[in-house]
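call fold(seq) -> C-alpha cells
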Amino acid sequence: MVDQLKNKILEVLKALLPLIIVIVILQFTLVKAPANVFSQFLLSAVMVFAGIVLFLLGIEVGILPAGKIVGAGLMEKRSLWLIIAIAFLIGFATTIAEPDVLVLSKQANIITQGAVSENRLIYIVGIGVAFFAAMAAMRIILGFRIAYLLTASYLIVIILSFFTPAEFVPLAFDSGSVTTGALTAPIVIALGIGLSSVLAGRSAISDGFGLLGLASIGPIIAVMIMGIIVH
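ret:
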C-alpha cells in the first residue's frame, strides 16, 4: 500500500505540476489576479492534488479488482440476461456518479438557463452508457466483432445528427466524451476484462477492451434523441 501511495503521488505530481507552474508564471507576468484569488488557487491545487491521489489509489486498490471479480463471477452464473442486467446497472450507477458528467450537466443547466435540466441530462447520459455497456457485454459473450457494433452505432449517430437541433449536437458529443472519466473508465474496463478472462480460447485484449468505447456512444445517441423530443 505504501509503495502504491508513493507511485500515485509521483503520477499526480507529474500531471498537475506543469499546470500549476504555467498559472504561477501567468500570475506574475500577464494576469496578476488579486492576491486572495491567487491564494485560493494555490489552496485548491493542494486539495485537488490530495483528492486525486486518494481517488486513484482507491480505484487501483479496490475498484479495479472488484470489477474483475464481478465480471468473472457473472460468467460463472451462465445467464446472459443476468450479465446484461448487471452491466446495465453498473454502467448507469458509475455514470451518474462520474465527476465529469456532473460538471457538464451543471454547466449545461447554467448556460441554457434551465432549458436543459441538470438531473435530466445526468440520467439521460447514464441510460445511454448503461444501454451500450449492456450491448458491449453481450458482444463479449456472443463473440461477434466489435466493428459491426461500432459501424451500426456511428451510422445511427450520423443519421440522428441531421434531425437533431443544432444546439444539441455539440452537447451530445461532449456527453459521450465525459463518460470516459476517472470513475467510469476503470470500472467498465475492469468489468469487460473480468467477463473475457474466463472465456476459454478468448483474448482479454481483443474482447475485454472496447467496452468503454462502445459505452461512450450511448450518451451521444441518447442526448440527440432528447434534443429531437424536446424540440
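The chain has a mean pLDDT of 82.
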